[in-house]
Fold:
Amino acid sequence: MFGMRSRHHGGLWRCESVFMWAAIVVALAQSASAQDRKLYLERSAFDVIVLKRDGSRHEIMPLKSRSAEVKRTGSLKVRLMSDTAEEKVISWAEIERIDLFEIMLLAEANRFVVAKKFNEAFKAYNLLLQAYPKTPGLDPAIQTFLFINAEHFVAEGQWNLAISTLEELFDRNPGFQRGGKSVFSLLSDVVSLILEDLIVNKKDFPSARQMIVRLDLKYTSGDRRLAATDKWRGSLVSLAQTKMAALKQLIDKKEFLAARNVSADMMMIWPDLDGARELAEGTVRSYPIAVVGVTQRVNTPDPLKIDDWAARRAGRLTERSLVEFVSPSPEGGYYTSPFGSVEKSDDYRHLYFQLRANSRGVRLSSYELGDWLLAMADPDGPHYRKRWAAVAERVEVEDDTRIRVDLRKADVLPEGRLRVLLSSYPPLAEHVASMRPYSIKENTEEHVRFVRNPTAISQGVNPPAELYERFYANFDKALEDLRYGRIDILDRLFPADTAKLLEDGAADVVVKPYALPTVHFLALNKDRHAYLKNNAFRQALIRTIPRELILDRLLDGRTLSGCRVISAPIPAGRSMNDTLAYAYNENIKTRRYDNGIGRIMMSVAKGQFEDIAKKKKEDPPALLPLTLAHPEDKIARFACQIIADQFELIGVECVLKQLGKGMTDDPQRNYDLLYVAATISEPVVDIERLVGRDGIGRTDDQYVNYYVRRIAEATSWRDIRRHFESLHQTISSDVTVIPLWQLTEYYAHRPGIYGLDDNVVNLYQNIDNWVLNPNPSDFE
Structure:
């Protein structure tokens, strides 16, 4: 057996001392004392020697030879797991057998399977595959494990796990059978369960269709076919035929909206049905309807309302402006007019209108437009516009198609002062009617239906005859319906969804950016809450809002270019070089979240109120709860809930108030704080409506109002940038509003729709160019 290394005359090692033999046996026994109390899976590899003398088992370091069938003569050199430093020698005559680690581990894995400990079994088999792939009996054992595990998944209703397990088993052994059941028959049963769930319960026809196609390609050969795919393919075809019959009836009845929805269902269920594509295409060509998913309801359409996403969106369909912002540019934006082109002179002293005829040959005359421009400069008239009157000096009709406006002084963006609704000037009613592309036919809590005005002039070939906005309270449901073709476009994506879709490069959804971000902030109503008049209190509030954390959660931990915390409610652009960022002062840093400083500033504010009250010999004002109002959309709700909870940490109770459906403000101002998400297309023009005397974030701060006025009066871009820097600094230091973050905005559409451009200002900006195709790319 084991012994000291002394030479025998016959060349064999032997043990010369009975004492040493006893010591080694004791050592071997101690090394094996705990071996059965710990799983092989949890231990480092070892082999086991079983002695003839007493049947005892002793752990040794793994042998180099991994076969139990070795020449059993002479002696064997081993190292005990309890003493790996010293090599010992044992005679083969004393060895009953050697249990290799992989054989023991395989046996343990098989026991796991019997005990239905499938996770442990998987780990054991996986270890064997990685380290001991030639273990006898390993592949048959894995096949049995996969089959039994698949049966368990079926019993638990985990069909997707069952099918993936069975497919792996099929790849290993297509002919595997156990207990009279073959892998192929069990696979067909599971496929039938999954398809029934997808088709009957979930109505997820695209997933069912894709599954059938994939399985047919993989498993159909010769006489072998999955009975389940044949059965459910027939069900889908039958459903599609039913939809086709209903579609034909709806077309005959001229119920085009219902026809559009049924056509989409038919193509989603089985687009390869004979005649389906042709019928769907004919439906779109004869009466195209676009279905747009929206997450904010429209109350009153208004293309100029900077704090109401839905009003701006829908306003482009029902209203037009004399001058319209088209896109940002290095110095101000690009502008155009429904009546023609508009441009200013290089010295900023003149503005020119070049009128053009529409597609019907009708043109607004220079005299008609000239009268309107003069009317807006007349302080005694009903159409007076203060900002326009401040710069317009003389209107000259040069000919029937061209007007020149002479300005009192240089003005960098005189055209921006003419973003005035056409409907505000009744004398142009005849021309205005042809400029409004759509009117509202129905407006409910669930949808808004727009129909094409019969007198509307189109620059496109076949724009939508109707546009149907469907409201979604849930972003996830809206995105799901977009993927399934139930809607054509989703007008605004949740930030985290945008980042994920762009990262994943999803083929079933086309994601496109808007030209303008939204800036988010809290407007203050100082007239309603005494503490909001105190700068230290306002500083406490801004320090208590974890803006970086909230933004990170809105993005679900991802990054999206241009999404950032801001120090003033002014667009910062997507980067330092973004032309839209001309009004933002990067030198002013955002105040970082610090609850400790928030508490200190809160104490300072209370102390200041107490000092004032003491001097007046009266009680200090009570710290009443703050009312934080917000629109109904998900971003505002999510952010305001966190903000309210944070305010509680510094002893400020905050009550949330959700505004009415489609509302972004309360005209009665029954709030202390208002969550605002504004779209600023032109800071020079929009800043007055943002923080001016009558703006959303209006304030009594004399310096803010002074710089807003100076921006409006500036005669050069240099002066504008200088005044914006001062305004930015004032807003930040005085906390006249609480700036939150900027979000870059995106929309999405299904493949097969053309004319939807990148970097549009408004979703419907180029609606005349839209071309609808009923066939999403995954059908083609």
